[in-house]
């Protein structure tokens, strides 16, 4: 049976899942990361705080694959909206991911990962479909009421939606209306921006491990993004990851994969 590696960039994003693992967790410290091995929804999982940025996420993903033998990798966390129709409180599931800050021109085309000959790294299609279904289920459930009302109170936004498509990643927190505008015009298919997903997707591609990336929108990557991000992180984020991933793990198990 497969072992699922679950990564997040921030403690708040894994806190509820960690509690749900219960007391029988084995922890191992490798390269300044603490890996928690245990069961979630009856499925063997390794849960780890990857920290922020592409290098941190890539190094952690390699350790999950090489040291723990995970056969599936899922990254969960927050993102800033890029597309106009994506709003705070929505969920984005990656179908494909790109590093928006990778630029080795004129040696290689913009965004292309040198010597891999590609810019986009696809998430596993089955994982993406299941994550989107679980996000829809969760947002339609009674459990989501508290996050929907917290998001409404803090951001004036209700009726969260689930989107599937392109996620872009780079080593900068996008917090500027013109910067996010540039991303939107250079990469019109981008739904949201974050700092890790495409790096994890590249590692998973190189190791042949299926990858899923799930992001909740905390801000609009504009001049108030830092304030919105911190409010969202403190008040709402933890419920989303746990609510969606618990459903995902139950359904993933029942498919016998
Ligand atoms: N994660 C959440 N919001 C973000 C933003 N605005 N830029 C980069 N990563 C993010």
Automatic annotation (TrEMBL):
Pathway: Amino-acid biosynthesis; L-methionine biosynthesis via salvage pathway; S-methyl-5-thio-alpha-D-ribose 1-phosphate from S-methyl-5'-thioadenosine (hydrolase route): step 1/2
GO molecular function, one term: methylthioadenosine nucleosidase activity
InterPro entries, sorted: MTA_SAH_Nsdase, Nucleoside_phosphorylase_d, Nucleoside_phosphorylase_sf
GO terms for biological process, alphabetical: L-methionine salvage from methylthioadenosine; L-methionine salvage from S-adenosylmethionine; nucleoside catabolic process
GO CC aspect terms: cytosol
Alphabetical list of Pfam families matching this protein: PNP_UDP_1
Top-level lineage group: Bacteria
Keyword Heme annotated: no
Record's keyword terms, sorted: Amino-acid biosynthesis, Hydrolase, Methionine biosynthesis
Record keyword Transcription present: no
CDD domains with a match to the protein in the record: MTAN (cd09008)
EC number(s) stated in the UniProt entry for this protein: 3.2.2.9
Residue span(s) of domain Nucleoside phosphorylase: 3-249
Official protein name in the record: adenosylhomocysteine nucleosidase
């Amino acid at each position: 049976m497969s072992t699922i590696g679950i990564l997040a960039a921030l403690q708040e994003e894994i806190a509820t899942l960690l509690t749900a693992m219960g007391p029988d967790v084995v922890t191992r410290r490798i390269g300044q990361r603490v890996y928690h091995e245990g069961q979630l929804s009856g499925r063997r999982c390794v849960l780890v705080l990857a920290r922020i940025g592409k290098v941190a996420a890539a190094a952690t993903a390699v350790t999950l694959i090489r040291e723990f033998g995970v056969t599936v990798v899922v990254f969960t966390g927050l993102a800033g909206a890029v597309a106009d129709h994506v709003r705070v409180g929505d969920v984005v599931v990656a179908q494909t991911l790109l590093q928006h800050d990778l630029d080795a021109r004129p040696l290689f085309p913009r965004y292309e990962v040198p010597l891999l000959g590609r810019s986009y790294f696809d998430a596993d299609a089955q994982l993406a479909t299941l994550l989107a279904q679980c996000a829809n289920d969760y947002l339609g459930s009674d459990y989501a009421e508290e996050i929907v009302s917290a998001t409404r109170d803090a951001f004036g936004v209700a009726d969260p939606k689930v989107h599937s498509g392109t996620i872009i990643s780079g080593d900068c927190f996008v917090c500027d209306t013109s910067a996010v505008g540039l991303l939107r015009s250079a990469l019109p298919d981008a739904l949201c921006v974050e700092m890790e997903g495409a790096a994890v997707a590249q590692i998973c591609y190189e190791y042949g491990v299926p990858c899923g990336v799930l992001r909740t929108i905390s801000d609009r990557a504009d001049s108030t993004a830092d304030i919105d991000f911190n409010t969202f992180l403190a008040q709402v984020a933890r419920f989303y990851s746990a609510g969606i991933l618990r459903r995902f793990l139950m359904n993933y198990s029942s498919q016998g994969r």
